[in-house]
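Example 5.3 — Poly(3-hydroxybutyrate) depolymerase
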Amino acid sequence: MYERVLHWRGGTMQDISSGGTSGTPWSYYGQQEQSADSAVLVAPQGLGNGWGNAGGEDVTFVDDMIRRLDGELCVNPAQRFATGFSWGGGMSYALACARPGVFRAVAVIAGGQISGCSGGTQPVAYFGPHGISDTVLPVAQGRALRDTFVRNNGCAAQNPPEPGVGSRTHVTTAYAGCRAGYPGQWAAFDNGHLPGPVDGTYTESGITTWTKVEIWRFFAQFS
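Solution (predicted C-alpha cells):
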C-alpha cells in the first residue's frame, strides 16, 4: 500500500511528514502510526504551497511521481491511495475524478472542489470527513463531493445523519448498495475547518483524533 498525503493551503510537505505540533503520532495525518510503518507514505509539495491544478498540472505532477516511485520502489500499483485536508482534500478529490483507475480509494478531509474534477464519472472508494460548522469550506461543499461518488459508486442515495451543534461528537455512515469494492462513507463532525477533531471537545489533536483511525480502517480494507 502507498498513499499520497497532501498538505493544505499554505502547508508544506514538511508539515505533513513531521506531524506539526502533535509530532510523530500525526505524521502523514496519522497514517504512519496507524500503518505501523507498513505503508509507503509520500508527501509531495504543491506549487505555491497549494494545489491549484491549473490546466491539470498537479495531476500531471502526480502522474510523474507515480512513474518514478513505481520504478524505484517495490509497491503494489493496485493499492494507491490519496488523502488530504482542505486544499489537499480538494486535490485528492481531483485525483479521484481524473485518475479513477490509478487510485483505489481517497479520503477527502474537509475538502471542496477547488482543484477541479476532470472526468469524475467512474467509481472510486470514497471517504469524506467534514465539520458541520466549517466556515472555510462549508459542509455543503463536502456533501456535494461525496454525492458525486455516491452516484459513481452506485450507492443508494440517502441523507446520512449528522451530529447536532453542541454535541461535540461525530457520526460516520457507510452507504448501502454500493458496487462491490467501491464503498462510500461519510463522517460529519461537530466542529469547524480542521483535520484532527476530537470527540468531547472543540479543540483538535493529532494524537487523539478519530480521523486517523477511521481513514486507515477505510484504506486497509483493500489490503
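Remark. Residues 57-72 form the longest helix (16 residues).
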